[in-house]
Design a protein that fits this description.
By secondary structure, the protein is mainly β. The chain has one helix and 24 strands.
Amino acid sequence: MSRLIRKSSVPGLLSLAALLFLVVPSMADDKPAPSYNETATVLATIDKHGHFYQVATDSKIYLFMCTKVKTFQLGAPDCKVGDKPIAKGDTVHFRIDSDWAYMAPVSEGIEERLRILATELKTIPPLPAAPPADTDKKSKTTAESGVVIGTGMHIRGQHGSSWSTIPTGVGSPITTASAGTPVIPTGPVLATPVTGGAPVVVSPVGPTSGGVITGVPVTGGAPITAIPTGPVTGIPVGGAPGSGGMQMGGGGGAPPWVHILRIQTAGKIYQLECSKKPCRDANKEIALGDALSFRVDKKWAYLSGGMQGSGTGNAAEEKYRILSVTEAGSPSASEAH
């Protein structure tokens, strides 16, 4: 009897296998292809303590970090589109999913995943009116109203993100290169070759950093390293980790990545640290361009339901740590800890 059952089961199993063979591919075919709806130009690549990419769309500037290699390696990971490393001047297509950017693959290749360290507005929207000054001299809090001009992530315990830009409200920000602020020059630069000789005009192939620039002479030839004959202005690079490098995080007991906000008020720029989850104000996830009201009490900011008032300790407040406070228009910041 058991032999008869086993024999009679074979055709049924073959039919089921054939059915699954037909059904499974059709289910896979129904899955929509990813939509890479963001197009950007690579402004700069930074390979100090890792590989970072500053890219610009029409309205935003992003700072991405390559995290492709997560185990022991000789050297920092770099990301590619197809078989070509991402380079300055490239046009890239990507999609955003949570805290990650996924680069469109070439042909049938695998999409490259990069962590979004910072997202910033190119143009600052109108700032809300400053809240009325507190007339209570005994009050220890200060009411503020501002606009979110940047969102990002950093490793808990660090002092904030290395922002790619310093938005000015009029197109791309321009600043002068210094030891602490490398910039992508906005045009050819007159510079004296480090090997000596007369100054030449070069088209930069990288940022101006440390008082020197690498560029191709406009008269032709191989790239040279030269010393600019005068101040060089351009788009701030930023993003490169500061002294001591950047902790990569993500495993082996490493500190967690947490979300941060950059808020500009009438006179200051605040960096706030939230948590592992995206920053929220009441029941709404905070986004670029949002207008917020908050009160400052020492090293803490208390958000109070958008523009509904500054609040004085109600249940709807969200408490976030202030990482730093910068005077608007100044590159220096006073840390809040």
